[in-house]
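Shipment paperwork, digital attachment
Item: protein structure file
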Amino acid sequence: MDISLHGIEKSFGKLQALKPIELEIKSGEFVSLLGPSGCGKTTLLRIIAGLENADDGQIDFGGKTVYSKKKRINASPQKRHIGMVFQDFALWPHMTVFENVAYGLRATGKKKGLKEKVAEALGNVQLGDYAERYPHQLSGGQQQRVAIARAIANDPSIILMDEPLSALDATLRDEMRILLQALVKKLNMTAIYVTHDQNEAMAMSDRIVVMNQGTVMQVGSPETVYQKPANETVARFVGKGALIEGTHTLYDRVHYLKLNQNAAIPFAKNFLEEESFNTRVTAVIRPEQINLSRTAKETGLQGEVETASFLGERYEVTFKISGTEQLMFAYSDVRLSPGQTIFFEVTGQNIHVMKTKLGGEEHETA
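Attachment content:
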């Protein structure tokens, strides 16, 4: 089911939690609301669910208005035909798994075929044999599966999830992420997923809505948001990497990002337009776009290792470019030691560049 948000606003006293939000979500799409704590993503989700009232705007589900300030329409959560999954599971401890899943069906008066619907929902989350157990007899991952089964038992067109995996350990999060992705596609539901975990959002989503301070900063596929962030805020929040500010210069037909009199980064490709010559720009350079070496490179670029962290399949290295205070992030196949001199070159073919407006922090893509 399509979801349309038009001019959705919300304030709590003097704090404006949501500035006018415009958002279109296609039927069957998996969309993540991504942003730091306090950015307004959970408030927006609760307004979509009908658990919170917006101060202004309109919400349409499949072309039907479920909320409108001007038209005085405000459908209750029960009439919006949605399923919800919360961070804390929200299971009744005195009820069996079966009764927890059946609760929503009974509350909405859908008792016909109840046993079959509960059995189907439990089967979809691989808990068919756990119907008579109580929540305290289940692991955290199993409890969250019960919460998901309860959300889908009513066969909703839309499922809303508020950081449902944050209480689980890393291994369980990976397992549940795969299950959720497969389940949403199998049941052809439209999903809105709130998270502050950028890796989770990029792995699961068809599109990501990056939010900050009650505003939508960018909407796009995970690839677009990662490779072409709309501004510095998005670039810093989505993915690892460094923002390098310098002057675009051209020397002997090679384009450089000049950091100071002693350091300039040559680009592997002409990423910059001629009209940006001698202007200040900011480049977003990701770790995978940097090639490290312990021997000198033709570029003459070198740095000093600050930290090296073992991640299992590789090392994550932070280093300072010699002659500057600029920190960079890169990956290495071998362990490097703090203080060690290393050489590097920027090799990526998708370096993203933003023009820097002098005297301000705003950026626009070049």
